[in-house]
Amino acid sequence: MVPTFIGIITITFFLTKLRPDALTTASMGPDGMKENSGLDEFQTKMRAYYGLDQPLHVQYLRLWKNILTLNFSESRLDHRPVLTKIGEALPVTLFFNIITVLIVYTISIPLGIYMAVHDNTRKEKMIATVLYILYALPAFWVSLMLLKYFGSAEYLDLFPLSGLV
Q1: Distance between CA 128 and CA 134 in Å, rounded?
Q2: Which of 8, 43, 124, 161 is 20 to 30 A removed from 65 (C-alpha atoms)?
């Protein structure tokens, strides 16, 4: 897991360096700036602010220092600390993960027991086929279809599609 983590961080770091002005132009807002009116000055200030004017190895080492000290800076959208935003989202994420695990085990354990007890029957083969097909489908597409059928007013409308209440 550690080599994978290091590899992902390193690859992401170097991929973001392929277009060095992406950070500074993204900070200008959706409309950008009008016809170079202070564009070069703005980009220079932004590059200095984020440390992009330093050599690549210094930026890379600073990235690892920030990761190891949990200094994730601030969000460019609302200028709040990223760690605070993670702390706000973490309880909701953990809640949904626990619910997901409970649902998966509630369905899969009885289904596995049923399939083990009724080996080589027509129902067991049909269930296995359906599960193989579901396994082969992309998870994001299956998720979207479940949202559509269980949460959409056009179909079952069992669950709300927004909000936490």
Answers
A1: 10
A2: 43
Asked if 70 and 83 count as a contact pair (C-beta separation under 8 A), the reply is: yes
Q: For position 11, what pLDDT does the model report?
A: 96
Q: Are 99 and 164 in contact (CB under 8 A)?
A: no
Q: Could you give the C-alpha distances from 163 to 11, 92, 103, 153, 160, in angstroms and in order?
A: 35, 11, 20, 16, 7
Phi first, then psi, for residue 119 (nearest 5°) are -70, 140
Q: Using pLDDT thresholds of 50, 70 and 90, give the confidence band for residue 68.
A: very high
Find the helix or strand (DSSP H, E) in which 63 lies. Answer: helix 56-68
What are the C-alpha distances in Å from 65 to residues 11, 48, 68, 69?
17, 18, 5, 6
